[in-house]
Queue: 3 jobs
Job 1
Amino acid sequence: MSDLQTHSASHTILTGDRPTGQLHLGHYIGSLRQRVALQDLYPQFVLIADLQGLTDNGSNPQKISHNIFEVMADYLAVGIDPAKTTICLQSALPALAELTMLYMNIVSVARVERNPTVKAEIAQKGFSRTLPTGFLVYPISQAADITAFKADRVPVGDDQLPMLEQTNEIVHKMNSLLPEPTLVPCQAMLSAVSRLPGIDGNAKMSKSLGNTLTLGASADDISKAVHAMYTDPNHLRVSDPGQIEGNVVFTYLDAFHPDAAQVAAMKEHYQRGGLGDRQCKQELEACLQALLEPIRERRLQFSADKAALIEILQAGTEKAREVTQQTLAEVKRGLGLPVM
Ligand code: ATP
Ligand code: MG
């Protein structure tokens, strides 16, 4: 039995990212920051979901393989510590694919088609009859990921809530088929900012929407992104009262500025009139520069040593293999399938 299985802590954390590009501010505020705190409290697994990344990039596998190491550099740069968090690779854990196959038999097509996040993504990507079957069922593979680790807490953005709901349905159905409950239901851990809008003000910052500010963004990228942000279109003169609702600059100040009282005073001043967009943007730029500069520097150092990244991923994946194979064996045995 591994150290992780004998650990007496009361929660197990599993979360992950698709290696479809560099991680961005949405990941940082929605999930990465929580992971850095959680790794000191509980056993934590972080899965690089390369198979899931391929579900809408099947013809461009190089994009996914390249980004595995970009995402690793992001993890280490924000402070995910491989001595505390097990970082592992989905495609190197065959138990996850096998559990997916087993779970696909207990989920109807109607149920996967009803998942609102998947529905929105299908529309966004313009899939109709060209929809890859793998993409439609990726929530089932995500259920396999979570349950294989027997994770009960999942720090994610709010786009993932339908995935966790579907996971719990699978857990209950599968447990009812097994002689004893084997799979563990899970709960989302949402951060205070569970859906950061894109720098274009679009509903969600996403790698695939091209509206991100990445964790490795240069000082110039940060400056340009902040200066291009929409504010209140009716706030024409500095003296005019301005609106903070739907104003991306204030959404970001709320999310990233370290001094909440200062932001509250700025909001009040802006709404009253007399505070210019330029000054708000300067304040936002300064706080994003201060946040991202050290991350960018650490990121560069970690990216320069690919051999070290491979070693960390290999060690984490070996540990994860043991845990996930164990769950698969329990499920197979429970279903009466020979475990050979
Ligand atoms: P893709 O466009 O390829 O789906 P993505 O930017 O949506 O990429 P994912 O790898 O799908 O990123 O998401 C990884 C994790 O980060 C998930 O838990 C997701 O909820 C969270 N996350 C992603 N974008 C945001 C965001 N804008 N705000 C808060 N959390 C986010
Ligand atoms: Mg996504």
Note: The pocket of adenosine-5'-triphosphate (ligand 1) is lined by residues 17-18, 20, 26-27, 30-31, 156-157, 159-160, 194-196, 204-208 (CB under 6 Å).
Job 2
Amino acid sequence: MELSRFIAGLPKAELHVHHVGAASPRIVAELAARHEGFTPVPADPALVEKFYDFRDFPHFLQVYLQVVDLVRTPDDLWTLIHGVGGDMAAQQVRYAELTITPHLHLVRGFAPKAFCEVIEDARHRVEADYGTVLRWCFDIPGDFGVPAADQTLSLALDERPDGLVSLGLGGGEHGVPRSLFAPHFAAARASGLHSVPHAGEVTGAQCVWDAVRELGAERIAHGIHSVEDPALLEHLAEHEITLEVCPTSNVRTRAVPSLAEHPLPALVSAGVPITVNTDDPPMFGTDLNQEYAVAAELLSLDEQGVADLARAAVKASFLGAEGKSALL
Ligand code: ADE
Ligand code: ZN
């Protein structure tokens, strides 16, 4: 069987994907049509795809926020999440930890309780309609500073939706020291949430060290610049801190110059646990099946190797032992 067909049929789990970044061009165009006149985002799916052409990482974040801006009503948010769940199920994604950035919605008028009710309702509907199980990572948008982090933590602790499993930290890395958010991650961890910050996506290994030491990171979003520091690679391998690697994302945001120069093979050779993910799939013109194919190419994997990648995602997930064994 062709490897791409094998990948398409393989049940998969995804650990690093942002809810807004995963919205299909069709759904984004539909939301843009709902709010026409108030957005630079085109109301035509083909033009949405063209709109996703990023000069660099800051430009990507700017466009990302323009899409966030389309999510204005509870129904917008529900439609987006339900659509993402359907797209995942079509790719045989049976379980996903979806990164969601509540602050960006709360500042656009969502009340905390209503926000959690909508995302939980959409999560349950996705499971009922498609069988795909979703969990949440509440993401602090680092560029918005400590007040946004305070708000994210309060929402997590006060509302504590059933689907919430972890606290994240996203956005830019330059000028956003991970240590700024140490108290938030300490409080989240004390309450039983897991720690999954972005680090080492566009800055160096020191950022990953900070995420590990200051934020108690159990997994790292991206972490690709760990490759610059052999002692860090050893630490990640020894402590089984998984990197959520998103190869095409890194090329499209210019975090790495090309797929051929992606550090994935070096990370794997160093014994660092990795999973393969999409980050913001339609924004980067990819999907999880394609990322598995990219990883297979970079790592020279056969069917067995690709199946091992899928198992690695289940193992590194925040499912309980029972949930994991049901998927393995
Ligand atoms: N938010 C959405 N995608 C992101 C990425 N790749 N890095 C940081 N924050 C993000
Ligand atoms: Zn991300």
Note: The longest strand covers residues 133-141.
Job 3
Amino acid sequence: RVVVGTKVDQNHVNWVTAYNMLTGIRFTVSRTNAKMDRELTDADFDAKHKFSFDITGNELTPSAKYDFKFKDYAPWVFRHLRTTFKLDPADYLVSLTSKYILSELGSPGKSGSFFYFSRDYKYIIKTIHHAEHKFLRKILKDYYNHVQDNPNTLLSQFYGLHRVKIPYGRKIHFVVMNNLFPPHRDIHRTFDLKGSTIGRDFREEELEKNPRATLKDLNWLRRDLHLELGPTKKDAFIEQMRKDVKLMQKLHIMDYSMLIGIHDLEKGNEENLREKTLKVFQPGGEAAEEPQPNQLMRTPSKLETARKARELRQSVKTQKPVPMEQTSARMPDELEDSKKHFYFYSDDGGFQATHEDDRPGEEIYYLGIIDCLTHYSLIKRMEHFFKGLANTESQISAIPPERYGDRFIKFITGVTKTKEAAEREKAESALD
Ligand code: ATP
Ligand code: CA
Ligand code: CA
């Protein structure tokens, strides 16, 4: 229990916050799921419900470990969205409310958002800025309609929008969304592409220290990489991207990116164990011990991670029991999933490369358009103004949504070609 007035370590706050988030989700999602399904009304898009949790509980809410307030937004809309995205209601609850939650994603992004993975790695909770929250509520109907018309959308799949607040704490808004990356496959390289070049370079020297880092546009170009899709898949992919981008242009959204995780089928899963031993985080549950502030949400040092990975690998080889802390982070080997219904997630949870004759290729892409709640508003206009003084407009990332989208489409389309086509083009340009 948080004692008001005591200085609470920041790590500790995260732990309590995560516990409160999960408790709130469990309560509000079960509450909505318990009712008979019905058609949506306009009012459903504006709906919000506030709940108070405390250690004693009351006629409405069960008792919880901490005092906090929880707000649930548009529960019926998100229930329908979860259905559209073919989530199993019971499964969703189990994933998000089991005793443990796995948390990672290195240091939070520039935006200050925090990311939490569900224990089974299927869902991501992202804390969002109040402006993003307001904006999502505003565009919810457009998003909902788009998803109904485009169940194969590449846009982030939103499953819930909530807010949590502890006494005297600030309001924390968050969304639950799909994790694009699979629990059961190594991602050998990750790229976050915007179609811009300014500042879109991850320092290659850093890659040694952090081999899993997310690379950017310039790193992609430097490697002369392509999204290797044969004609059938390329057409479908580009067409869907165009539709998704069109929606974002209409809604004046920008700053989104195409997140691409590449699984190299030849390399396979050798390194898988390592990634799965990172951090385990226990927000409550009977067996969980009270948090020790300094142990929570702490990023293990490189040495620790390497040591644990070694231990785990050893213990697998020698059949020694795996320490508890690590077992709890073991990932499923198979993808059981609803994902196969969706074109871009149907090859082992992703989208497998193809050759010119549509024969399957050597890589699986786990991809989608992320970070799509930034409205072209004040902040971006300011960035445009400041950066615009030094750089030519075509290169900066904060250009107006219309052009941002066009540039995005142009870039992604430009790098989508088969190995064969890329080689041919290279040979041709050598002749010129
Ligand atoms: P910024 O505004 O500075 O770009 P942000 O806090 O809004 O940062 P995002 O751009 O949404 O963060 O995501 C940051 C990183 O988190 C991505 O580059 C990617 O590595 C990871 N990530 C985000 N969303 C997902 C997702 N749905 N699936 C898998 N990984 C994700
Ligand atoms: Ca981003
Ligand atoms: Ca962002």
Note: The two ends are 72 Å apart (CA to CA).
